[in-house]
Amino acid sequence: MTELRLGAVESRFAELIWQGEPMTSTELVRQAEVALGWKKSTTYTVLKRLCQRGIFQNRDGKVTSLLSREEFYARQSEQFVEETFSGSLPAFLAAFTRRKKLSQEEIQQLQQLIDANRG
């Protein structure tokens, strides 16, 4: 399975792309310099790594996502539950609620999700 974890700096870089895509690689270099203080070589190195992981692509100098922000985080969550709780969502929720009690609103939202996905 492709590694779907991003470090803190990679996450900020990914957000630059998701917020501005499509964008030219030149524009991405400018934005990374302003937002992250990166040089051109750093931007291209990190972009290449994230492209190899199947999250983004840089084709003909145009940077776009292969996974939307929502799809990326959905897959990352699935991967976490699979690796940490043997794919058991109930085991994940049991661990989560050991230290943080759910509000009535959260319980209602979860119930709506369950109802919407029955069947």
UniProtKB/TrEMBL annotation:
<dbReference type="Pfam" id="PF03965">
    <property type="entry name" value="Penicillinase_R"/>
</dbReference>
<dbReference type="InterPro" id="IPR036388">
    <property type="entry name" value="WH-like_DNA-bd_sf"/>
</dbReference>
<keyword id="KW-0238">DNA-binding</keyword>
<dbReference type="InterPro" id="IPR036390">
    <property type="entry name" value="WH_DNA-bd_sf"/>
</dbReference>
<dbReference type="InterPro" id="IPR005650">
    <property type="entry name" value="BlaI_family"/>
</dbReference>
<comment type="similarity">
    <text>Belongs to the BlaI transcriptional regulatory family.</text>
</comment>
<keyword id="KW-0804">Transcription</keyword>
<keyword id="KW-0805">Transcription regulation</keyword>
<protein>
    <submittedName>
        <fullName>BlaI/MecI/CopY family transcriptional regulator</fullName>
    </submittedName>
</protein>
